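Researcher: Sequence recovery benchmark, item below. Answer with residues only.
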């Protein structure tokens, strides 16, 4: 009986993780791809205008922690003059944002 309960928990956890990853990809596509591009390279019209960094570049990814990425998504980014560089992602829970940060990490080549 104990093995069945543990197996059920493991299968449920795996299914939730897979669903979360799919949701994060969908969130990225809806929220981030307009500027960062579907591949994360920032080669969109808006991405080029804002000089967005290539999120597929390992050095770029090493340049920020998950906590910094979380804060940027939650609160947005401003330049030194206070001009908005990236708007905060609206309507996302903290768990959604954490999943989105993990999704961004998958873009690294």
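Model:
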């Amino acid at each position: 009986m104990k093995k069945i309960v543990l197996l059920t928990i493991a299968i449920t956890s795996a299914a939730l993780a897979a669903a979360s990853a799919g949701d994060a990809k969908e969130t990225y596509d809806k929220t981030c791809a307009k500027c960062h591009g579907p591949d994360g390279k920032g080669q969109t019209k808006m991405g080029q205008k804002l000089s967005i960094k290539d999120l597929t570049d390992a050095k770029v990814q090493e340049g920020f922690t998950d906590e910094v990425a979380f804060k940027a998504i939650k609160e947005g980014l401003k330049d030194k003059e206070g001009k908005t560089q990236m708007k905060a992602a609206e309507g996302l829970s903290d768990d959604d944002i954490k999943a989105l940060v993990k999704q961004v990490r998958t873009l690294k080549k």
